[in-house]
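Weekly modeling sync, notes
Attendees: S.R. (lead), two postdocs, one rotation student

Agenda item 3: backlog of single-chain predictions. S.R. asked that every request posted to the team notebook include the full sequence so nobody has to chase files. The rotation student volunteered to paste the first one in as an example of the format we agreed on. Action items at the bottom.

Example entry:
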Amino acid sequence: MWIANLYYWGFNQYIIQRALAAKDIRESQKGVVTAAMIKLFVPFIVVLPGIAAYVLKADITKADQAYPWVINNFVTSGFKGVVVAALVAAIGSSICSMVNSASTIYTLDIHNIFFKKNASEASQVRTGRIASLVALVIGALMVPALKNFGQIFQYIQEYTGFISPGILVVFLFGLFWKRTTTNAALAVVVLSLPLSWGLQHFFGEIAFLHRMGISFLLLSAMVIGISMVESKTDSTKAIHLPKGIFHTDKTFNFWSLVVIGFLILIYSVFY
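Predicted structure, as returned to the notebook:
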């Protein structure tokens, strides 16, 4: 589980672009700890409708129907509109961030490098808009394929897990081990998908979170092996982190301890 969480909160552009938009590191830290406080309520919001549907013997055929069943049967008309509006707003915000990330990655890392290296700002904006439209169309076309899955969230998590161990390995070793080489990182990126597919195909009976852990360990061993063969010293492209860059102030530390305390309380009471 920690692999999925570190990847999502630490190395997913959809999330970190919000922190990168802060005016400085201190402000981004405040945003992170505030988001953590709000996130403490999510298990109750996500889990309680399912528990309610189970206890009330809901007449549903798929797990994804639990939430709308509870809303439709037990929420009054006025408040139901507020709930739906909040849900639509949250979905819209997430889609906006994802589409923005997809268009940025394509425009800066693919189009500007392989197709038009000296593109003007206006051209890049136009390319980004086209990439956003294409991403939305691809997403819409994939919707019918999801109707046969009992839990869409689990489906998303499992197939995100095909790439998250590899991305996490690249970032962790790239940041914290100066001997990591470019070829080692490239090998991980290229082999991450086929390795995850192979684990799913041959060891499908193993829970997907455990397969992510196995993939992470194998890819980590690959980075270490290739880097040690290629280089006997620190890489010339090593990232040198400024001293004190991870320093946190007393306010951040206090609220972080509060979050950890609440997590321990929640697990001790409900686990």
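Discussion: group reviewed the output briefly. Residues 35 and 137 are 30 Å apart (CA to CA).
Action items: rotation student to repeat for the remaining queue; S.R. to check formatting next week.
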